[in-house]
Amino acid sequence: MEADISKISFGEYVFNISTNSFYQVNPVQTEKLYNLAIDGASLDKQDVILDLYCGIGTIGIFASKYVKKVYGIEIVEEAIENAKENSKLNSIDNIEFMVGDVEKAFENLIKQKSIMPDVVFVDPPRKGLDVTTIGNLLKVMPKKIIYISCNPATLMRDLSKLEEKYEICKITPVDMFPFTRTR
Question: Does residue 54 carry a catalytic annotation?
Answer without folding.
Answer: no
